[in-house]
Amino acid sequence: MYQLGWFSTGRDKAARDLLEAVQNSIASGDIKAEIAFVFCNREPGESQESDLFLKLVESYGIPRICFSYQRFKSGINPTSQKGALPPWRLDYDREVMIRLQGFSPDLCVLAGYMLIVGEEMCHRYNMINLHPAAPGGPKGTWQEVIWQLIDNQARETGVMMHLVTPELDKGPPVTYCTFPIRGKLFDKYWLASPKGHNEQNTLFRLIRKHGLAREFPLIISTLKAFSQGKVKIKEGKVVDAAGRPIKGYNLTDEIVNSQQPIVDSL
Q1: Most buried residue among 89, 193, 209, 253 by CB atoms closer than 10 A?
Q2: Radius of gyration (C-alpha) of the chain in whole angstroms
C-alpha cells in the first residue's frame, strides 16, 4: 500500500483537524494509502497543543516519532547559529533521519511542520508542502501573499502543494486549484477597500476565507491523486500517470465539486 510520512509540529487545532480529515479519508477508502509514521519536532510535555496532537496520533495506532527541536537547539553554542540555516540545523535533520531509518515512505507531507527542511532531508524524501497561492503567484506568508494580491490588483489566486526543496517556497508545483477574487462576491470590497495593510480589511479577510476553504480539500485530493498514481515525483520532477513532466496537476474542478458553498459573510 502507498506509504505516507507525516511531519507536524502539532502546534494548534488545525494540525489535529487536518490529520483527522486525512485519516477519515483513508478509512473511507477515498485515499488508498496509510500513514506509515508521524514525526513531531516536539516531545510530550512541551506544549498542551502538541500533547493533544500526539494523543490523537496514538489513538489512530500510527507510529509516532518525537524529537525535540527546542531541546536539541538548547545544547548548541549560540555562536554557531549564524545564517538562514546554520550547520547545527542540518545536524538536527540528520538526527531525524536516523530516527526514521525503519520507514520507506512514498511521499512525505509537511502538515504544519514549523521548521525549514535542509538539503539532505529534501534529497532523502519526496516531500510536499502547502502554499497559499497559485503557481506563479506571490511568495511569502499567507498574509504577505494576500497583500501582494491586493496591491497588484490581482484577478485570481489559488492554493497549491509544491515539492519541498532547499530553497524555501520555490519548489515546483505538484497540485493546485485556483479561484477568482473578482465578480459578485468580491467587487464591492475592491471598491471599498482602504489603502494600507490592516488585517481587519474586509477584502483581505474574504480572500483568506476562500483560500482556507480550499486548503484541506486540496491536500486530501492531492493525496488521493498520488495514491491512485495520477501524479508522481520522479527524480525531483513532477510527472503525470504516463511519466510525462507537468507543471502541476490542476485539481480545481475536483475541489469545486467537493466543497460546500462559501457564503459571503464575515
Answers
A1: 89
A2: 19
CATH number of 1-125: 3.40.50.170
pLDDT tens by residue, 131-174: 999 999 999 999 999 999 999 999 999 999 999 987 776 789 99
Instruction: Outline where DSSP puts E strands in the chain.
Output: 2-8, 33-40, 64-66, 107-110, 127-131, 156-163, 173-180, 231-234, 237-240, 249-250
Q: Which grid cell sits at 258?
A: 467537493
Helices (H), 38-154: 48-59, 69-74, 87-99, 119-124, 142-151
Cα–Cα dist 120/133, whole Å: 26
Cell numbers given for 114: 514549523
Q: Measure Cα distances from 106 to 19, 103, 114, 227, 257 in Å.
A: 18, 10, 22, 9, 27
- Domain ranges in the chain are 1-125, 129-266
Of the candidates 122, 222, 141, 135, the residue with the CA atom closest to the CA atom of residue 172: 135
